[in-house]
Specification:
380 residues; alpha/beta; FAD/NAD(P)-binding domain; D-Amino Acid Oxidase, Chain A, domain 2; 2 domains; eight-stranded mixed β-sheet; 11 helices
Length: 380
């Protein structure tokens, strides 16, 4: 049973955001920016965010050439251009909100490796650059085949490289910690270990029933916001958001690593980058869920041995041919995907709003979708 003090000070809020990932914290910050006097709480079931926000590859990207071409086939050119614009704008908001140092932002560019099967995409560079010309200061993509030999990639597989000067990379853990610190500085209440078991709607409020170990707590709010990414289907199954696990490995430091930046191939299903550390440059490599879509449609934070084995093979044969390396860490993260790959900001009940945008692009879209979600919760 709660004391009077606990009940009076900890259980009543104007806005409660469920999920302390990038969209959840960005939504809370936007609510405080737009309505400073409101009381805002963020509920996170883990001790730290445990979805994709702290377990991703740290790509500050807007989409590779072949990924954008694929999106245009699915959603059309106009919708895809809007989405790329939102991604690029979201990265700008994130950098301005936190500062590059606080989120570990580095801009070495983004690169896509093309193979025999998709090298024909080079013929579409001019068309895509024209479609995106109002978004970027100069052409979004240009061919850089000279980098294949310079970076030491396996020429039996890599036939071309497309570069974008405007993509970057972040330190995901530093970014999320900085967002949490900033939210607390702005007066947002962060409650960790708060697992929402159920949501009930009243005429004048919404009740969120929480559990932590053997303890239970009910919090009431005028408005609740779901920013739970892959876990949204628990409370809003009608939206059709599905989990997608991403496999990642990281090497120990590699002497004289010849490249810096974020790299994509196979329409973004695989991705790798350098990671700077006090002991040297490492390679982070992730992806491969297209090898086993059914198994990777899960919220279990476990490893898929077959995919991890394929990632190692790609390192050995294509990324670091004829060089030795040691795998130092492996992990997985849970992304959320929707069939359209388009953001979802929607009021699903009079007092409940859902903000979802990721589809593998949470770092880019999180800040702008957080602002949109806040406006929706405010009734704007």
């Amino acid at each position: 049973m709660l004391s009077y003090w606990e009940q009076d000070a900890w259980t009543q809020y104007d806005f409660v955001v469920v999920g302390a990932g990038i969209i959840g914290l960005s939504t809370a910050l936007s609510l405080k920016e737009q309505r400073p006097q409101s009381s805002v709480a963020v509920l996170e079931r883990g001790f730290i965010p445990r979805g994709a926000s702290t377990r991703n590859a740290g790509f500050a990207c807007f989409g590779s050439l072949t990924e954008i071409l694929s999106d245009m086939q699915t959603n059309g050119e106009e919708a895809t251009v809007r989405l790329v614009r939102a991604r690029y704008a979201g990265l700008d908001v994130l950098r301005k909100r936190l500062g590059d140092s606080a989120c570990g932002y580095e801009q070495h560019g983004g690169f896509e490796l093309l193979f025999e099967s998709n090298v024909a995409a080079l013929e579409q560079i001019e068309r895509i650059n024209n479609a995106l010309r109002d978004i970027f200061p100069s052409a979004a993509f240009h061919e850089r085949n000279d980098l294949i030999a310079e970076y030491g990639f396996g020429t039996n597989r890599v036939k071309a490289i497309v570069k974008s000067d405007f993509e970057g990379q972040i330190h995901s853990g530093r970014m999320m910690r900085s967002l949490a610190v900033l939210a607390q500085e702005r007066g947002v209440m962060l409650l960790w270990g708060a697992d929402v078991q159920a949501i009930d709607h009243e005429p004048t409020a919404v009740q969120l029933h929480l559990k932590h170990n053997d303890e239970s707590l009910t919090i009431r709010a005028a408005q609740a916001v779901l920013c739970t990414n892959a876990f949204t289907s628990t409370f809003a199954p009608e939206l059709g958001i599905k989990p997608a696990r991403g496999q990642i490995l990281m090497t120990s430091p590699i002497a004289d690593l010849p490249f810096r930046g974020v790299f994509h191939f196979d329409e973004g299903f695989y991705y790798f980058r350098n990671v700077s550390s006090p002991h040297g440059e490492r390679i982070l490599l992730g992806g491969g869920r297209n090898l086993d879509f059914d198994a990777e449609e899960t919220t279990a934070l476990t490893l898929n041995a077959a995919i991890q084995q394929e990632l190692e093979r790609l390192l050995r044969e294509m990324i670091l041919p004829e060089r030795s390396f040691t795998i130092e860490q492996r992990w997985s993260g849970i992304m959320g995907f929707h069939a359209s790959k388009l953001p979802i900001v929607r009021r699903t009940h009079e007092r409940l709003v859902v903000g979802f945008a990721c589809n593998g692009m949470g770092v880019a879209l999180g800040s702008t979708i957080g602002a949109d979600t806040a406006r929706c919760a405010l009734g704007e």
